[in-house]
Amino acid sequence: MSVTEIQQYIKDLKESIAGQGEVMIIPTIENYGLSGQNTTCVTVLGIDVYFSYKTAIAFRINGRLVVRENVWGVTTGKHLNLIDDGKKDDRVSGEEFKTLWNELAVNC
User: Fold this and answer.
1) In CA terms, which of 16, 33, 96, 105 is 20 to 30 Å from 67?
2) Could you tell me the pTM of the whole model?
């Protein structure tokens, strides 16, 4: 997902709730694997952030998935595979992941 696509999603989201008065969107926390596997997904404002233990390893925005390449080990690799069905060629470097995430956070 490009920075431009992320910016457009945030703009569209803000426009969709504008004029509705105070809108409260409650975050959710779920497991994306089996319970107890340290596989957590937090959803806030329609953005899913996937964690392996306490590390953010992927996020989904506007239906598009951004997944970090595995630089950790076998267990986090299994968590990544749960998220993207093992599509390793679509994963981004840690630096690209941070850039995309920082752009998203700045525009929220």
Assistant:
1) 16
2) 0.75
